[in-house]
Amino acid sequence: MIVVHHLENSRSQRILWLLEELGLPYEIRHYRRDPKTMLAPPELRKVHPLGKSPVIEDEGIVLAETGAIVEHLVLKGGGFGPPSDLPGALLWRQFLHYAEGSMMPPLLALLVVGRLGLLGRPARKPLLKMFAVHLRWLEAELATRDWFAGPQITAADVMMSFPLEAAQARAGLDDRYPRLQAWIARIHARPAYQAALAKGGPYAYA
């Protein structure tokens, strides 16, 4: 049985969604953020030294890092992997890594700047301008296909869900990007996504 150490309003919601899509059995251990700092509780450090989420336990191994967990689950579940054609397979790998490697750093910077209040205001505008480059590119990528790696949904879309949901909440993803908004609506409508929400508990970005 796969154990998911799930922190509220975090990247780990993607893991629950993927597990539902793949139909793999799992158990959730819930963690709540500190209401003042919004950081993960110290109990997560007992699971993994970094004290971050997601973390899973499977077959005696404790595995951290969303992309690594997603790749493991894709192999285990036999679905949502790369398309069979080379262009699709390369897109799958690109977006699997881009979600965390390129999108999340500016989103985290915007989160920190937002918490600084007046002190953070001078940095917000240039950060949003920088992030808009990402949004324009992603909007163009979906001009010829419904999903990030091709005509069918894959784990690349699962990985892209959290940064784009967060971007809709705090980084300028609005009506200027109709394809991205339509993509978010499509993932939110999926039964597996809804099932993951029901099991995972409150999620600020859905």
Write up this protein.
The chain folds into two domains: 2-80 and 192-200, Glutaredoxin, CATH 3.40.30; 86-190, Glutathione S-transferase Yfyf (Class Pi), Chain A, domain 2, CATH 1.20.1050.10. The longest helix is centred in the middle third of the chain and has 30 residues, at 86-115. Strand 1, helix 1 and strand 2 (26-31) form a beta-alpha-beta unit. It has helices at residues 12-22, 66-77, 86-115, 121-141, 155-170, 178-189, 191-200, and strands at 2-7, 26-31, 55-58, 61-64. Helix 1 (12-22) crosses helix 7 (191-200). The protein has 206 residues and is α+β, with helices and mostly antiparallel strands. The protein has a four-stranded mixed sheet, covered by helices on one side.
Structural class: alpha+beta
Q: Could you tell me how far the N terminus lies from the C terminus, measured between alpha carbons in angstroms?
A: 27 Å
Total helical segments: 7
Number of domains: 2
Name the poorly predicted regions. none
Topology:
Blueprint: E1 2-7, H1 12-22, E2 26-31, E3 55-58, E4 61-64, H2 66-77, H3 86-115, H4 121-141, H5 155-170, H6 178-189, H7 191-200
Helix pairs in contact: 1-2, 1-5, 1-7, 3-4, 3-5, 5-6
Structure summarized in a few sentences:
This protein is α+β, with helices and mostly antiparallel strands.
Features:
Glutathione-S-Trfase_C-like; 206 residues; 2 domains; four-stranded mixed beta sheet; Glutathione S-transferase Yfyf (Class Pi), Chain A, domain 2; 4 strands; Glutathione_S-Trfase; single chain; Glutathione S-transferase; alpha+beta; Glutaredoxin
